[in-house]
């Protein structure tokens, strides 16, 4: 590679001057070498990739130029001496490394920055043309001391409350029992792990809003286990790759996010004088994406991304976070995407739907989906036609955050994938019931309403179609509505509903009230049993509604055989009818009540009348 200008020099850090085992050793970088620093997360893996590890050669093996010179993020504070004699504070994190590549801090002694978080959309880094090249997958989990007061699982939504200061002691965290104060640690500003972690908090926060961090958070170098070791009240976000080699700490369930590790370059350098070395080390067909690099990456605790030729993202320069996490161990398999939706319903029922797709293929991923809450499997379902569904019952009220993890039947066919976190809120359950006992017209009735859960002591709406619509305040789960004896005949819908509110589900129930026609009893009474021909005679007809005190009303007819001899109207149960002038003879008279919409008609017993001259 052709040497750059006199200003384009590396860092003067020969073996004797190295202050970290992960600094370049055994040589002084020259202008043909690629010099970088930045993220604490990837300082070890870059050291392995450049120098080699455990007998496996690295990129620099046999090279005297065009090498990778990666400087560690620690110790802090520390000063690096530049080739031109000037000094520079050792970059401690992703942001610190990237800052050396553009703007007023642009440093020609630096060629790349290690990064554990992506370039931010719409930032000056994008405007400056920086490009990031992914090569490995890392994860982020929470860690505590081996012996800790923290519960073994902390949901992301509860991490929000720890880091915004809502939870101050461990017994306030679900599953915690200690009254000791929480000591929450966070990496310093500029840390890629910090920005990735706060992005995960925002995803778990209501509405995806940025979390306002508490003022008492303790700041510590990312992936430094020292503040946590032996401290039962400490908690911090930690690289899963780095946690594998750390001592005195343990990971806990709950947050389990994956991210890419990048090396960031000036866009101009990708096609400039440094292109051949960048291509040989970092690009799609370079060493970092080759089978030779895989054991070095895995030795540092990470997973090598699949090569571009095998459907992966390794070595492809981008300006945004990648979402293709196909690994070298899955080369040959189709990259999959798992998208989770979650909904909650009355009765503590949560329905989880995972939609699966394979990149660049119409094939539907085949396998199982593990639905997890706080890292613990709560349901499992087979994927059929690109969809897996599970229903969980008996879920407690409150916010619940789930992930869906696709596990392929054959790794050679489909790569596993995991959804983003999805939160749904389960409201308090409610239930109502209604009973309506029907029967014959003319009797007062009671509609009985019962409620449980949030409806046990709440107002409910009760409606009997065409009769009444009212509100009943339930007490200890019960209430009633009185219906008058005059409730008309018919089959009527009875509904009861609890409207619910922001903390409880609505519920409803229905029944049918059937009122049948009542019977009637008709009595005929003559003023006299013997009358003179040609004279009129008054009669009284009495009609009673069977089983009721309600009076009957309607038409009544007096007949002798089929011949009508008188008509009248029953009002309030009685009718007075004057018979027509009859001829001499004996008559058998019967009164027939016609009935109405609510009462059946009927006839009286026959009454004898003798008419004489």
Automatic annotation (TrEMBL):
Start-end of Polar residues biased regions: 27-38
Gene3D superfamilies assigned to the protein according to its UniProt record, in alphabetical order: Immunoglobulins (2.60.40.10), Periplasmic binding protein-like II (3.40.190.10)
Region described as Disordered: 16-38
GO process annotations (BP): carbohydrate metabolic process
Pfam families: Big_3_5 (PF16640)
Cleaved signal peptide residues: 1-17
Keywords: Signal
Superkingdom, natural source: Bacteria
Chain ranges of the Bacterial Ig-like domain: 526-611
The name this protein goes by in its record: Bacterial Ig-like domain-containing protein
Species of the source: Aeromicrobium endophyticum
